[in-house]
């Protein structure tokens, strides 16, 4: 499919300077299967000016009326799920069931829910002899990643639009297709022109001009810590509000009283969501040293049951990663770890049998990993878990916290109170007890270099609000 236009000011517009198309590669075959326009700073400027023009009327509209429009957008996405899901599966590699349920339908539900929640905010409240007012921060530059292109975009779009902001959304260059259907749904829902603008292109040509634009009031970015630092530096020149959901190197702690037969499969299942292409993946698995051999035995059995293959095939449980560069990066980390005396329990760097095309990787578990190794310190974004032995609760907490990141984590224990106590000691934005849980109204975000601010629920809405006091 060839797309030639952006969605700016409620219209489909061709790039101002024309220019080359941006090819999008199938994760299944490695071949180009769609293309989108490669925008420039001029296109970013046009989108920002449209958002700025639309801001006063949208901000003045009541939250309930905004919620109705956003609800219609959500329904439009549900109506398009059968088209969106296979597109995301081919772009990103997520098996079709997850691409439909998690990436599309659940994303649409979350979009509608956040808009309804925004109607319950106290936008004005008396405080002594003052009146405290919450108003939209203004024009938001949203920059979303390729691993969950629709879901993570909607986390930004929903919260920002629901409280009265307008947005320019830069689609991920390797997985932009679903956001064109978002534009279709917005147009169909009667969203006023300029409230949501969607553009495509590379980061330096689109993302950086958005971050530096004088009419942009806030940057909302999900992606790598390195790019986040770059955008923060650019935005700092005009003191922009910034929300950053960045990288992670999350640890799942398995205590000696945990049920290994349930804990280890749960940990692997979470770590291999979307072939490990999740910022919150439990890519470090901390297990009791005395039970290391038994843990390896269970892990080998669990991983052997994964079916690697075409994400459009219902039998597949682990699809490819998004790009050739991603496969090369994962293999480099695994090879380096082995050279540093890590041991492959299962998997490896070779392509899975019969899958030489596309961007497929073997699900891999490494043991004898030292937490100082790069594979235990850097985000990999692939189906690789590093097993690290610990010598008790205190040692496990020390290892878990020995990271520049602090996004997610888990504790497995047969004693709930003990697990909760350990969770309190981990310096990370979210900790799950005895299995993966995703509360769409709970705050999500990181400590340390995993980010700034929070998404989801009332906490996510607050990111897009300014507070003003009027002295009466």
TrEMBL record:
PROSITE patterns: ALDEHYDE_DEHYDR_GLU
Sorted UniProt keywords: Oxidation, Oxidoreductase
MF-aspect GO terms: oxidoreductase activity, acting on the aldehyde or oxo group of donors, NAD or NADP as acceptor
Stored CDD domains: ALDH_CddD_SSP0762
InterPro entries, A to Z: Ald_DH/histidinol_DH, Ald_DH_C, Ald_DH_CS_GLU, Ald_DH_N, Aldehyde_DH_dom
Key word Transmembrane present: no
Domain Aldehyde dehydrogenase: start-end pairs: 21-470
Active site: 245
Domain of life: Bacteria
Family the UniProt entry places it in: Belongs to the aldehyde dehydrogenase family.
Matching PANTHER family: ALDEHYDE DEHYDROGENASE (PTHR42804), ALDEHYDE DEHYDROGENASE-RELATED (PTHR42804:SF1)
Protein name: Aldehyde dehydrogenase family protein
Lineage of origin: Bacteria, Pseudomonadati, Pseudomonadota, Alphaproteobacteria, Rhodobacterales
């Amino acid at each position: 499919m060839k797309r030639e236009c952006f969605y700016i000011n409620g219209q489909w517009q061709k790039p101002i300077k024309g220019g080359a198309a941006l090819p999008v590669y199938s994760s299944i075959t490695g071949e180009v299967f769609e293309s989108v326009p490669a925008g420039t700073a001029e296109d970013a400027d046009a989108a920002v000016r449209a958002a700025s023009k639309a801001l006063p009327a949208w901000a003045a509209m009541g939250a309930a009326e905004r919620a109705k429009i956003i609800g219609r957008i959500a329904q439009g996405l549900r109506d398009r799920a059968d088209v969106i899901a296979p597109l995301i599966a081919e772009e990103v590699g997520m098996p079709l069931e997850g691409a439909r349920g998690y990436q599309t339908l659940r994303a649409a539900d979350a979009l509608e829910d956040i808009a309804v929640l925004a109607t319950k905010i106290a936008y004005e409240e008396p405080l002594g002899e003052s009146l405290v007012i919450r108003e939209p921060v203004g024009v938001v530059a949203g920059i979303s990643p390729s691993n969950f292109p629709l879901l993570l975009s909607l986390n930004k779009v929903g919260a920002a639009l629901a409280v009265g902001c307008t947005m320019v959304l830069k689609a991920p260059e390797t997985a932009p297709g679903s956001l064109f259907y978002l534009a279709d749904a917005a147009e169909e829902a009667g969203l006023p022109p300029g409230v949501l603008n969607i553009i495509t292109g590379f980061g330096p040509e689109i993302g950086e001009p958005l971050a530096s634009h004088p009419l942009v009031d806030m940057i909302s970015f999900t992606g790598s810590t390195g790019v986040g630092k770059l955008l923060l530096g650019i935005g700092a020149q005009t003191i922009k509000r910034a929300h950053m959901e960045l990288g992670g190197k999350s640890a799942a702690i398995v205590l000696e009283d945990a049920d290994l037969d349930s804990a280890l499969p749960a940990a692997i299942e979470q770590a291999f969501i979307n072939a490990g292409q999740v910022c919150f993946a439990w890519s470090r698995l901390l297990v009791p040293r005395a039970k290391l051999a038994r843990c390896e035995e269970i892990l080998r059995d669990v991983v052997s049951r994964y079916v690697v293959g075409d994400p459009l095939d219902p039998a597949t449980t682990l699809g490819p990663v998004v790009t050739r560069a991603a496969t090369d990066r994962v293999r480099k980390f695994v090879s380096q770890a082995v050279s540093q005396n890590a041991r492959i329990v299962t998997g490896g760097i070779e392509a899975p049998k019969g899958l030489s095309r596309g961007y497929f990787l073997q699900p891999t578990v490494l043991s004898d990993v030292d937490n100082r190794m790069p594979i235990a310190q850097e985000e990999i974004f692939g189906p690789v878990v590093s097993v690290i032995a610990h010598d008790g609760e205190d040692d496990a907490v020390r290892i878990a916290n020995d990271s520049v990141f602090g996004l997610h984590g888990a504790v497995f224990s047969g004693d709930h109170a003990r697990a909760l106590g350990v969770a309190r000691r981990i310096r990370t934005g979210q900790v799950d007890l005895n299995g993966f849980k995703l509360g769409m109204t709970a705050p999500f975000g990181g400590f340390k270099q995993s980010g700034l601010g929070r998404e989801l629920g009332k906490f996510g809405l607050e990111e897009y609000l300014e507070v003003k006091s009027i002295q009466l």
